[in-house]
Every structure is written in structure tokens, then in C-alpha cells.
Specification:
Number of domains: 1
Bound molecules: heme C
Radius of gyration: 20 Å
Number of strands: 4
CATH class: Alpha Beta
Strand order of the largest sheet: 1-2
Number of helices: 4
Oligomer: single chain
CATH superfamily: Cytochrome C3
Shape: globular
Distance between the termini: 52 Å
Strand content: 5-15%
CATH topology: Cytochrome C3
Length: about 130
């Protein structure tokens, strides 16, 4: 009887772990390049990061560190809270590509590629990414 109780507890515990990992996978980042600044024109953009990773994207499709035109990024530097990997740390207002141009270039650049194998076309119009609540 004692043993059965332990089993039931163990099974319930596993479900909690499973639910947690499923939640983590549906994680959506909110991209807001103007957070706290005035003059925001469009609503912030919900970005399903994990979905993009699952779709077979390599980390380096989006994250980069250029040296002589080559992406030499060490993927082990891609850790949560590392400010050096934030787009804003390099694409400031004085960069050749400012933050808005960097995001648009990357997001739309890929979403506009011919999308043969894709069942669902990714958003390409303003309101498809800048979602009004
Ligand atoms: C389709 C593009 C894309 C792909 C592919 C991608 N990322 Fe990201 N990632 C982003 C964007 C955009 C951000 C937000 C950056 C910011 O806030 O400045 C981000 C943020 C992150 C962060 C920072 C999270 C935080 O808030 O501190 C980590 C860590 C990360 N990515 C790791 C990875 C890893 C590891 C891979 C490969 C398995 C990967 N990314 C693949 C676009 C991508
Ligand atoms: C460590 C600095 C750094 C970080 C972090 C960074 N970039 Fe860049 N990015 C550059 C440099 C340098 C270039 C090439 C020179 C230029 O065009 O300004 C570049 C080029 C680009 C380009 C032009 C196409 C290409 O890939 O070469 C896009 C689009 C872009 N970045 C978007 C992003 C996005 C989105 C993020 C965040 C996920 C990001 N960048 C993070 C430095 C950075
Ligand atoms: C390397 C290619 C690539 C890049 C870069 C990329 N995406 Fe996507 N995105 C895709 C693909 C492929 C899909 C379709 C996934 C599917 O089959 O549902 C998609 C789908 C989406 C969706 C719809 C998700 C859903 O639930 O239907 C959103 C929102 C999105 N992307 C936002 C962004 C944003 C914001 C950026 C830039 C920060 C970005 N994407 C950069 C390839 C990319
Ligand atoms: C594929 C996704 C995507 C599409 C499509 C898209 N954007 Fe964006 N845009 C972003 C992301 C990501 C950012 C950076 C996060 C933010 O600040 O909202 C951004 C930032 C901006 C900004 C700077 C921040 C602000 O709100 O002032 C403006 C302006 C903007 N977009 C306008 C537009 C317009 C106009 C269109 C349609 C022509 C459009 N965007 C289409 C993803 C997208």
C-alpha cells in the first residue's frame, strides 16, 4: 500500500515536470525595441523563439558576431541574460543598421524567402507581427 502511494506520487510529479517543459517550449518572447522610450509607433512583437529553433533554424541564422565578414559566433555564448548577444548591443542608432532595420532585415528577409516546404506562411505584413491587443 505504501509502495502504491509512492508510485502515485511519482507519476503525479512526472506530470508536473512534463507540463513545465511543454510550457517552456511554447515560450514567446516579446520584442520591444523602444521599451520605455516615447514615440513608439507599432505594438511590440510576440516572437516564438522555440518554434523557430524547432523549424530547423541554426542559431547562427539569427545570432552573429562578425569578424572580417565571417560569422564567428561561439554558440556556447548564447545564454540567457548575456547582454552581448542582444541585437540592441550592436545595432544602436549609430550603427549602419539601426535596431528597427536589423529586426526587419532579419525577420522579413527570411519570411519572404520562397517557402516551398512550409505549410503555413510566416507573417509578412505589419499587422502579422505587430499585433494589436
Ligand atoms: C529565427 C531567429 C533566431 C534563431 C534561429 C535563434 N534565435 Fe535566439 N534570439 C533571437 C532573437 C531575435 C532574440 C532576441 C534578442 C534581443 O532581445 O536582443 C534571441 C534571444 C536569444 C537569447 C537571449 C534570451 C534572453 O532573454 O536572455 C538566447 C540565450 C538565445 N536567443 C539562444 C539561441 C540559441 C541557443 C539558438 C539556437 C538553438 C537560437 N537562439 C536561435 C532570434 C533567434
Ligand atoms: C556583436 C554585435 C552584433 C550583434 C549582437 C548583432 N549584430 Fe547584426 N550585425 C552586426 C554587424 C557588425 C553586421 C554587419 C555590418 C553591418 O551591416 O552593420 C550585422 C549585420 C546584420 C544584418 C545584415 C544581414 C547580415 O546578417 O549580415 C542584419 C539583418 C542584422 N545584423 C540583424 C541582427 C539581429 C536581428 C540581431 C539580434 C538577434 C543582431 N543583428 C545582433 C553586429 C551585430
Ligand atoms: C531563418 C528564417 C526565419 C527568421 C530569421 C525569422 N523567422 Fe519567423 N518564421 C519562420 C518560419 C519558417 C515560420 C513558419 C513556421 C511554421 O511552419 O509555423 C515563421 C513563423 C513566424 C511567426 C508565426 C508563428 C505562428 O504561430 O504561426 C511569427 C509571429 C514569426 N515567425 C515572427 C518572427 C520574427 C518577429 C522574427 C524576427 C525577430 C522572425 N520571425 C524571424 C522563419 C523565420
Ligand atoms: C516579420 C515581422 C515584422 C513585420 C512583418 C513588420 N515588423 Fe516592424 N518590427 C518587427 C520587430 C521584431 C521590431 C522590433 C521590436 C519592436 O520594437 O516592436 C519592429 C520594429 C518596428 C518599428 C520600430 C519600433 C516602433 O514601434 O516605433 C516600426 C516603426 C515598425 N516596426 C514598423 C513596421 C511597419 C510599418 C511594418 C509593415 C510595413 C512592419 N513593421 C512589419 C517585426 C516586424
Amino acid at each position: 500500500m505504501k509502495r502504491l502511494g509512492f508510485c502515485a506520487f511519482f507519476i503525479a510529479f512526472s506530470f508536473v515536470l512534463l507540463a513545465n517543459s511543454l510550457l517552456a517550449q511554447s515560450d514567446v518572447m516579446i520584442l520591444d525595441s523602444m521599451k520605455g522610450l516615447p514615440g513608439k509607433k507599432r505594438p511590440p512583437v510576440p516572437f516564438p523563439h522555440n518554434l523557430h529553433v524547432e523549424k530547423g533554424g541554426s542559431c547562427k541564422d539569427c545570432h552573429h558576431l562578425y569578424e572580417k565578414g565571417e560569422n564567428v559566433l561561439d554558440e556556447s555564448s548564447l545564454t540567457e541574460g548575456n547582454k552581448e548577444i542582444f541585437c540592441s548591443s550592436c545595432h544602436g542608432s549609430k550603427a549602419r543598421l539601426n535596431l528597427e532595420q536589423a529586426y526587419h532585415g532579419q525577420c522579413m528577409g527570411c519570411h519572404k524567402k520562397p517557402l516551398k516546404e512550409q505549410k503555413k506562411a510566416p507573417p509578412r505584413y505589419c499587422g502579422g507581427c505587430h499585433i494589436r491587443k
